[in-house]
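Example record

Each entry pairs one chain with its bound ligand, NDP.
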Amino acid sequence: MNNNIPKTILITGATSGFGKATAELFNEKGWQTIITGRRADRLEELAKELGEKSLPLAFDISDRRAVKSAIQNISPNFNNISVLCNNAGLALGLEGADNANLDDWDQMIDTNIKGLVYATRAILPLMVENGEGHIINLGSVAGSYPYPGGNVYGGTKAFVSQFSLNLRADLVGKGINVTSVEPGLAETEFSIVRFKGDKEKASQVYQNTRSIKAEDIAETIYWVATRPKNININKIEIMAGDQAFNPFNIVKNG
Ligand code: NDP
Ligand code: 8X3
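Structure tokens for the complex follow.
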């Protein structure tokens, strides 16, 4: 490996929230960043902010061919990828399972599960060839603890958690670490997306509560990525200071 080239992180979903904050932090620490997402205008804007150490790649992560082609065409200066941060994802809707929109369910599965495996499968051979790498996946507390309306979103995040552990089983001994970072309530564009552009409804989710900030998660990702190679952080769960668990819901006279 050429030690003169700075380390490179590829971040999916860098146009807002955790992904954008992660790109900014790694850039500040001297890393090269490959920033991805569908909104090309936002990527260009971020690339301008980050400077020449960043490479914007606009594609839809749920499009298997687009993922493969974007990653195959990464220029040689950037293809020495040390960290893949699988962050792109979304929740759509908060309806109960009997009322939920099936298109929303499809899109969450296509993005949070299929997109994650497409990006991982495209990058892994490069990491195995280099004998070095780290895959950091964005799960969620919703993958461990159910809540009403979480249905498929929570299911996709449980997949992230289990897929991370299974990747680890396959990759041990190949120099590749795998971590699932599992945050709770964080104010990003997440709820605006979940409520389909209703900013008022989205802001109520975070009103009068100390939620996680995108920068908190970026710092966690940076910490995970810079641990010495004699350890692997399997999983990190982070809740907002003002967030905890509900009791079991017991229905009387049901
Ligand atoms: P944001 O909505 O702010 O960011 C989501 C990012 O994902 C955007 O950059 C968006 O880019 C990208 N994305 C969504 N769909 C696609 C797609 N089909 N192709 C490419 N990129 C896509 O949300 P967060 O930063 O909060 O979320 C980041 C991750 O963290 C998600 O996986 C989310 O599930 C998870 N998470 C969020 C929590 C929260 O409370 N905020 C808590 C726990 C986990 P673009 O629209 O430009 O394509
Ligand atoms: C996002 C956290 O609790 O809003 O993954 O589902 S939660």
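The first helix runs from residue 17 to 28.
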